[in-house]
Specification:
Helix content is 39%, strand content 18%. The protein is an alpha/beta fold. A seven-stranded mixed beta sheet has the order 2-8-7-6-5-3-4, with helices on both faces. A five-stranded mixed beta sheet has the order 1-11-12-10-9, with helices on both faces. A hairpin with a 6-residue loop joins strand 9 (292-295) and strand 10. The N and C termini lie far apart (60 Å).
């Protein structure tokens, strides 16, 4: 016989949590391999100095040295910056703060980053799923009409996993049209790879724009879990009310401050130039490969492509090459390849050549 406690958790769970499909991250799949190009991580690593002092004291909830450094980096006031545990916490804070459970909704443009949906489902907030095609090609009035009464409109720019990018003028026009009814949240996790496209400059003129940033990608600090939410103070004030008491550890703040030094920002930009050049080389290989049906042109430190035969993914795994498979546009033969270093991309080239050789034979 089962214990009386069997099924207790299931009985107590709200329906939205009981039915929740958790986000499947690249690292949650427990894969094995030798070349990892599945999580859009930087191939570069840097050592940081840690003092180890004052760990017996609670940290500054919003470490001023980091806030000041990041505000200097992006060109906003320190009052317009909230430091979070990755950009994911910024997403969660916005939904938790501005959306009423079982009443409000958010809008997204699919295919896009999966955490928007997971966060909405977690908080029992409805999801209005529109298309990337609408966002990229639709008129602003059409887009905003279909957004409906969504409180938050998430625009991943550049978009993950497609790399698609919309310009500042269109973001500004959408924000202007939705003034007084919705926040336009621009997720710029990959913006360092095309910095001239950032929406940060729009904050001065549009009170309903929010920008999400991270140190995970171009800054090569995915393991630090550090993000920033940028907005006008009227938007950030309620977020600060619901923010955890001590969201940023002393160690994280110490490393983030070092990463945002003038020298390390310059180093990051050099690495971005290198990665963008390697990406161009990878795109050329993919476009020339008979094993590839379609290559999506886009920004970010990744390339997304459609394979002629999805069994090519299994062949990559056999070679120790781990990339991220996707189901896009109703088809399960898509693959996202993160931009690694020259040696790692050499492994991709060898895999592509092996596919072409096997087809020829």
């Amino acid at each position: 016989m089962g214990s009386p406690q069997d099924g207790l958790a299931q009985k107590l769970l709200p329906k939205n949590i009981a039915n929740l499909s958790a986000y499947s991250s690249a690292k949650s799949e427990k894969l094995s391999g030798s070349t990892w190009l599945n999580a859009n991580e930087s191939p570069y690593n840097r050592e940081y100095q840690l003092s180890g002092q004052a760990l017996n004291r609670y940290p500054d909830p919003q470490p001023q040295q980091v806030i000041q450094a990041y505000s200097n980096y992006v060109g906003v006031k320190p009052e317009q910056v909230v430091m979070t545990r990755g950009a994911d916490e910024g997403i969660e804070l916005l939904v938790r703060t501005f959306c009423q459970s079982a009443k409000d909704s958010i809008a997204i443009f699919a295919p896009t980053y999966g955490m928007y949906k997971v966060t909405a489902d977690t908080h029992n907030v409805a999801l209005n799923t529109l298309s990337q095609e609408l966002l990229l090609q639709g008129e602003v009035d059409e887009i905003c009409t279909q957004v409906g009464d969504a409180k938050l409109v998430f625009i991943c720019n550049p978009n993950n996993p497609t790399g698609a990018l919309i310009g500042q003028d269109k973001i500004a026009a959408i924000a202007a049209r939705l003034t007084g009814s919705a926040l336009v949240v621009v997720d710029e996790a990959y913006i360092e790879f095309c910095p001239e496209q950032s929406a940060v400059s729009l904050l001065a003129d549009y009170a309903n724009i929010v920008v999400l940033r991270t140190l995970s990608k171009a800054f090569a600090l995915a393991g630090l879990r550090t993000g920033f939410t940028l907005a006008n103070e009227s938007i950030l004030a309620p977020l600060r009310k619901v923010l955890a008491p001590y969201p940023v550890s002393t160690v994280v703040a110490d490393i983030a401050a070092q990463a945002l030094s003038t020298a390390n920002i310059a180093s990051m930009r050099r690495q971005v130039d290198t990665l963008n050049a390697l990406k161009s080389r990878l795109q050329q290989w993919l476009e020339q490969s008979d094993a590839v049906t379609r290559v999506l042109a886009g920004e970010g430190n990744f390339v997304t492509l459609q394979l002629k035969d999805k069994n090519a993914i299994a062949i990559a795994y056999q070679r120790g090459l781990v990339m991220r498979p996707f189901t896009l546009y109703g088809e399960d033969d898509w693959l996202r390849i993160s931009i690694g270093n020259e040696q790692e991309l050499g492994e991709v080239k060898a895999w592509l050549d092996s596919l072409t050789d096997s087809t020829a034979n």
